[in-house]
Every structure is written in structure tokens, then in C-alpha cells.
Specification:
globular, Endonuclease III, domain 1, Endonuclease Iii, domain 2
């Protein structure tokens, strides 16, 4: 099961500091422990995987990604531009997602978008550079910076699972909107990435009933 995966011990210092600052995190952390390790390499394949995961469940995204990698083993801009729409549709991609991926591939292939340049940018500039491309909104840009680039202070306030987990952990009456999410997480700077990873973990953990 997912909760038997190898824990990400690199998150321990940040989560221990967050637990010191926030009693609700401390209580949940004592029950749930560390999130599992999630390794996603930076680059075009990572962005494709995030686009695939837009507005579908994690299980559906994994299934589509698996079929895509089987049909187009080399996920590069050139390969995605050469793949027929029929092949990409067979993997389970919608027409809009095919358009987003191909537009991104074209921008990278012709040199107008340098993914490696994101490494030299602060978070806000990197977010803006990603969001300049059709099909990449706040959620997609944040997930790329968090998972693929391992930035330490990314807060995906629009992610439904994170919002629902925070509602439960903070015992709120309703699921918070993005503005309230941002207000709640403000004291967690500069460790909001660790907080988000923990909330995903908390959301799915079998030991949170009644927490």
C-alpha cells in the first residue's frame, strides 16, 4: 500500500519546524509521520505528466501516463510533435491536452522556451514563465516547481486534496478557498512545500479518522 512506501526523510527538518509552529500540524504529524518519497525529474516529461494529470484523478492520470509512455517511449518535444493525434488519443489524452503538449513542445523545440533557465529564476518569475504557455495555470506551474524542481516554498492553494486536508486538519466548517488557504499558510513560510506534501499524505492516510 502507498503508506508503506519509503518515507522522505529530507522533509523531517521542515516538518519538525512546522509542528513546532502549528499545534494542528504537530498532532497530525505524530499520527501520520513523514510523507513518502516522490521523485519526478525536471524537464519536458515532467511537464507533460502534470498536463496529463489536469482535472482527472491520480489513478486516471497514472493510467494515461503509462499508456502514453508505452506508445511514445521517448517523451521529448520532437517525439511529441511527430506522434499522430490518433496515437495520442489512444493513450487517453483529450484534444485540448494534445494541443497544450504540442504547443509546449513547439516552444521548446524552436528555442523560444528554455526550461533550464527556470533554475536561475526566483519562484515568482519561474511561475510567470511557466504560466505564459497555454494549458499551464497556477496549479500546473506550482506542481512543476514543487515536485520536479524541489522548490521549498511552493503552496498549491488551489489543489482540492490539499484544501480538503486542511479543512479536516484545521476543523473548518467548509473547504477553504485559495485566499483563505494562502492566509492560513502564511506563517508556514519558507516551508510551504513540505506543508503541502504533508497535507497530501494526511489526506490519504488511514490513521486520520477523528483527527
Amino acid at each position: 500500500m502507498w503508506y508503506h512506501a519509503k518515507p522522505d526523510r529530507s522533509l523531517a527538518p521542515a516538518l519538525e519546524e512546522l509542528a513546532r509552529r502549528d499545534a494542528d500540524i504537530a498532532k497530525a504529524y505524530a499520527i501520520c509521520g513523514l510523507p513518502a518519497t516522490r521523485n519526478r525529474k525536471p524537464g519536458f516529461p515532467g511537464l507533460v505528466r502534470i498536463i496529463v494529470g489536469q482535472q482527472v484523478s491520480a489513478g486516471a492520470a497514472a493510467a494515461i501516463s503509462g499508456r502514453l509512455e508505452a506508445l511514445v517511449p521517448d517523451i521529448t518535444p520532437g517525439a511529441m510533435l511527430k506522434a499522430t493525434e490518433a496515437r495520442l488519443r489512444k493513450a487517453g489524452l483529450s484534444r485540448s491536452k494534445i494541443l497544450y503538449i504540442r504547443n509546449l513542445a513547439q516552444e521548446i523545440d524552436c528555442g523560444r522556451f528554455d526550461l533550464a533557465a527556470l533554475e536561475r529564476m526566483p519562484d515568482d518569475e519561474a511561475m510567470a514563465a511557466l504560466r505564459a504557455h497555454k494549458g499551464i495555470g497556477r496549479w500546473s506551474a506550482e506542481l512543476y516547481l514543487l515536485f520536479s524542481m524541489k522548490r521549498p516554498d511552493i503552496w498549491p492553494a488551489g489543489d482540492l486534496a490539499v484544501r480538503m486536508a486542511l479543512k479536516r486538519m484545521k476543523r473548518l466548517r467548509s473547504v477553504p478557498d485559495e485566499k483563505r488557504m494562502d492566509r492560513i499558510a502564511e506563517p508556514w513560510r519558507p516551508f510551504r512545500s513540505a506543508a503541502a506534501l504533508f497535507l497530501w499524505h494526511y489526506y490519504r492516510h488511514p490513521g486520520i479518522s477523528g483527527v
